[in-house]
Structure formats: C-alpha cells, structure tokens
Amino acid sequence: MSEPHIESPQEMDDANARPVDAPAPTGPAESAPAPTGPAGDALLEMQNVTLRFGGVVALNDVSFVLRKGEIFGLIGPNGAGKTTCFNAMTGVYRPTSGAIRFQGRSIVGRKKHQITRGGIARTFQNVRLFPEMTALENVMVGADAHHKTSVIAALFRLPRFWHEEHEGRRRSLELLEFVGIGKRAGDVARNLSYGEQRRLEIARALATNPTLLCLDEPAAGFNPAEKEDLLQLIRRIRDTGVTILLIEHDMRLVMNVTDRIVVLEFGKKIAEGTPAQVRDDPKVIAAYLGVPSDAA
Amino acid sequence: MSSTAATPGKNGRRLNGNLRGWFARQPVWVRIVGVLAVIALAYLLPYTAEIPLIGPQIVTEGIDWPSALFNMSYYVLLALGLNVVVGYAGLLDLGYVGFFAVGAYTVALLTSPDSRLGTEWPWLAAVPFAIAVAMISGLILGWPTLRLRGDYLAIVTLGFAEIIRIVAQSTETLRGDRGFTDIPHPPGQQTDGSALFGVRDATPYYWLGLTVIILVVLGVRNLDRSRVGRSWLAIREDEEAAEIMGVRTIKYKLWAFAIGACIGGLGGVMFAGQQGFMNSGTFVLQFSILVLAGVVMGGSGNIPGAILGGALISYIPDRLRGIQDPIFHTDLFGFRFAIFGAVIILIMIFRPQGLIPSRRRAMELKDREKEAAPS
C-alpha cells in the first residue's frame, strides 16, 4: 500500500487552474502580506533554543526568525535536529533553554492542542493519520480544533452542533479537493495510497486554520512527478496566506520552492540565507559532502 | 458518509459489510421502518415461546424467560457503556463492574430500610443521584489514570473494581455480605391496581430495560457521530497525533470515563430495582471480564456489536440452566464458563473482529508499543 501514487497530469492541471482564493484557510493569516519576499513581519522566533536529552544535545543555541508569508526551509543531514526543532515548536518537547515566540507570544510550555489552536499545524515525517477513520473524518478532526460544540450540545443535537458539523464537513471536503484527493473522502485512511496519505495529512493540518504550516519531509518516498505536484501544492498553500516551514531532504525541491533556508548540523545552525546563498556556503557544502566540519 | 466505507474483506467481514452497506443505501423511510420493526420485535421478545417450533428452542428453561430477558437488558446496558470506554476511546477498562456497583449501592443506600441513611426514598427518586454518583466515580477513576494506556490502565482499573468490592464487603455502612433488602421496585400500577413492577413477572422490567437501552443507544450514537466521537477515535488511533491536531485529549478521555460510568451506573440502578436485594458478592471481578468479553465478542467500537455481545454473555449461561449434561448429569450451568470460553475462542478464531465487526475496531488490544504514554 506504500506504492507511490502517480497523479494524472490532468488532475494537476485542474489544480493549477484553480484560483488562489478557493478554500483559503482563513483566520489570522488573512492579513498576511504579499506572498514572496523577506519583507513580512516576524511570525515565529526561535531564540537561543537549546534542547538536551540527557547528555545528547539535540539543539544547540539555535536562533532564527520566520517571517509571515514566506516558505522557509529547514535542512541538514540526518540527525541534524530538524524534526526536534519541529517538536519544540509544536509543544512535543520543551526546550531546555531559550525562547520560542509565535506572533510575539511565548509558546514554551503550552499544551500541544493549545499551540495548534493558536495557529501552528504540522505533518509528520512518518505519516500519522488516524488509520481507521475515513479521509473526511481525519480532516474533520482538524476542523474540530476550532469548534465549540460541547458534549451536551452533541448529545442533544443543539443548533450549534448542526451548524458546526455542517460547516466543518463543507470545509473539510473543500480541503480534500484542494489537496487533490476529494474522491477519496469516504475511504478509510488506511486504504489510501502513500501519496494520498501524505496529502491527507496536509489537508488535516490545514483544517486547523493554521497561520504557520510545518511540513516534515512531505516529499519523502515520492517520485519526481509527485514531487513536482507537491511543489505546486506547497505554493498554492502559501498563496492562500499560510506561512510554510519545510523540512526536506530533496535539495532540488527545497531550492526551488523556499524563500529562505536555515541549515542545521549536529543541532547547530551553520547557515542561513536565500537558497542561492546557502548553496554556495562552504560550511553547507562541507556538511553535505561529509568533510569534517572543522575544516570548513 | 461513514457508512459508505465498505469494509474491504478479511475473512467474514465482507458479507456483513454488504448487508450494512445495503441498509445504508436504502431511502430514509425504509431505514426508519426497518429500525422501528426491530424495536417492535424487541418489545415482543417476552412472547418468543409462542412462536411455533423455533420459540421453545430459544427460551430458557432453568430461569423464566422474561427474567432472562431482563438479565440480558442490563448486560446490554453495561456492554454499551463499556463500549464507549474501550471501543471508542480505546481505554482498556477491566474494572467496569465498579460503576455498576456504585449505581446499585447508591440506590440501595437511598432506598432500602436497611440503610443507615434512613432516607427510604422511592426507587425513581434515587435514580438521578445514582447516575450522578457513578459519573463522579468515573471521573475519580479517570483523573489519575489519564497518562496510562493499555495494560497499565487495565491493571489500575482492575484495582479500582476490587477497591469498590472490598469496601462494600468490609464497611458497616455498605453491609458486606448481609447486603440490602427490600430495595423498592420502580413505580407504576397495572389496571387492576397491582404493582406494575412486581416480583412474579419480569416482563415489565425487561420493557423498562429495553426503553433505557434505546435512549442510551440514541445518546451514544449522537455522541459518536459528532466531534466527540471523532475525538475519541482519534485518541484511540494515535493519541499524540490527536493532541497535535488540537484534540483536548484529557477532556475527552474524562468524558469517555464519565459517560461509560454513567451507563454502567444505570445498569446497576436497573439491577437493584428488579432484584430488591444485593450484597457485596454480586460484584465480582468476573463480571467486568464477562462484559469486556461481550464487547470484544460482539465487535468492539460499534453499537450493534455491543448489543449483541452484551445479550449473548447473559443469554448463553441462562440458556444452559436446567439442561443436564449426558455424562455427569449435572446442570450445564455449572460448566458455563468452560462453554463460554470455548465459544469465545471459536469466535476469536473465525471472526477476530467480533460478530458484528466495526471498521473502527479496537486498536488498543493490538498496540503494544504505546502502553505507557510518554510523559
């Protein structure tokens, strides 16, 4: 079932033809400035973040700033601390020291679901859907993050239940269309192809109305055609006003789609800049070619 | 939408999926008529013996049929409640009898002349209190166990049920083995002036039980098909991912415990109202395990499965009463657990998803990696 799924070119053309508005994840992101360019305000600040597990330093004094409306790449060799970085941002791990601020407010110590509702959504490196639930239900779990229906309201089917349920379903179906798997809405997530599962994860994350979407190696295991589709999808998401943080191994994809990049190695930031700057940075070349870092 | 997801076929699941899929595709009125017909038939069950040929084979011999039906009704209630905790939220609870006991004891304390409280309320007045107390006990059990999963949770809940039983056995207020007598029956009069809920005929109790079951099913179904049900399933499937998607896992786990406890307490309330007598010996551990077996056997995570499973765990032993085995000439009821065990093993071999499988089957019985939640 992990067989790569190849989208028909037809489907992709449709997607491209879609106006940027359609299922725009609204919310705080609506005020986001022009999509490209480093001109946006700071959205997320990592300030001297250090994270230790016992004696292992997973993140060592990492600082960078994500600006509104950009596609930001986080790259580095295996074990560099990219996913740890994500986990610190989304409340899975608590930094040993340092500050993480989102929209000016510290999010260190906040609960995972609070951070999600605050506007940070993510996908997982190894897909973590709810396998026995349908694609639509998976996305609706995300949409529920902003719903207020209480258990009592659900039990007695009060008006708020009908309103939110209807609204949540409509939006979830739109999002499934948006990521290109609208036809699989009624299928159990477990039965989706690998590529569809990855897309479903993105739809589920978008359903929480994020200001910042963190994608953890979304192209892992994709063939070139699928990667191209994904690249288009990421751009379309950005065009709806969502800031994107992308962890990716595929250099070509990262260089193509990101506005700025931070490079991590052994938990430390070794470079930051535009794709072109980073590509020519000797430290980065050393990290990727395996030259001992002290030689760089 | 959910019902259109045909369960693709492992052995035995296909037929069922087709039947249910077929039913789901019918127009609304057909479905309503179908459900009403099933409900009407359920109310007519006490007259099963009247059916020629088949009837006498179905009814129990060693226990009168309406009583057997009433027993089934509170087992079904318990299975429905446990299904919320185990089937939906994926919290393996082995101490479910505890809530049944809490419900029954609250009724006994408030109504029985043996009670120290001396309130001697009518049965109906004690019902809301019993449900509320059961719900609170659910929260009391749920709160400290929120971080546990799988086997660890099972052990703690097991302890909970034993605490309730031992407290009942050894505290003077709860009267241990002597128990409570003269717990009043539900109110109501027949046209001839005799009590509707008497001691002779259990049929009215069964009808009451059935009515309560229908209300509980409606409630549970409403919850299941809402963000509450989705949150429970998401927690069962991947608790951490659920929380990262914005699900308040603590809140919904507590609700699962509270609702399960509520329904279990309701079962206890019904039980106390019919029996009139109960003591600490009523609430043994086997009871919890039996109900859990019923849920798993019927098909964890779906309402028809819980109903069928709950009914079977009561029906099979009752049907065995009064039948002599050919070798030892003893009552087969004595062998009920052996026979029962064999039946469960057969079901688990041939239908591992349960008799009425759910696409939302219990993952918690499979997952071994995440037993202790990461703290």
TrEMBL record, chain A:
- The answer to whether UniProt assigns keyword ATP-binding to this entry is yes
Q: Does the keyword Metal-binding apply?
A: no
Q: Name one GO cellular component term.
A: plasma membrane
Residue ranges occupied by any ABC transporter domain in the UniProt entry = 44-291
PROSITE patterns the UniProt entry points to: ABC_TRANSPORTER_1, ABC_TRANSPORTER_2
Gene Ontology biological process: D-alanine transmembrane transport; L-alanine transport; L-isoleucine import across plasma membrane; L-valine import across plasma membrane
The GO molecular function terms of this record are: ATP binding; ATP hydrolysis activity; L-isoleucine transmembrane transporter activity; L-phenylalanine transmembrane transporter activity; L-valine transmembrane transporter activity
Q: What keywords would UniProt list here?
A: ATP-binding, Nucleotide-binding, Transport
| Residue segments, region Disordered | 1-41
Protein's UniProt name: ABC transporter ATP-binding protein
TrEMBL record, chain B:
Query: What domain of life?
Result: Bacteria
Annotated TM spans: 28-47, 68-88, 94-111, 123-146, 152-168, 205-223, 254-272, 284-313, 333-351
Q: Where in the cell is it found?
A: Cell membrane
Q: Which GO terms describe its cellular component?
A: plasma membrane
Q: Which UniProt keywords apply?
A: Cell membrane, Membrane, Transmembrane, Transmembrane helix
What InterPro entries does its record include?
Answer: ABC_transp_permease, LivM-like
For membrane topology, the record states: Multi-pass membrane protein
A Gene Ontology molecular-function term?
Answer: branched-chain amino acid transmembrane transporter activity
Q: Which Pfam families match?
A: BPD_transp_2
* UniProt cross-references to PANTHER family, sorted A to Z: HIGH-AFFINITY BRANCHED-CHAIN AMINO ACID TRANSPORT PROTEIN BRAE, HIGH-AFFINITY BRANCHED-CHAIN AMINO ACID TRANSPORT SYSTEM PERMEASE
Please give the name of this protein: Branched-chain amino acid ABC transporter permease
- Species, as recorded: Mangrovihabitans endophyticus
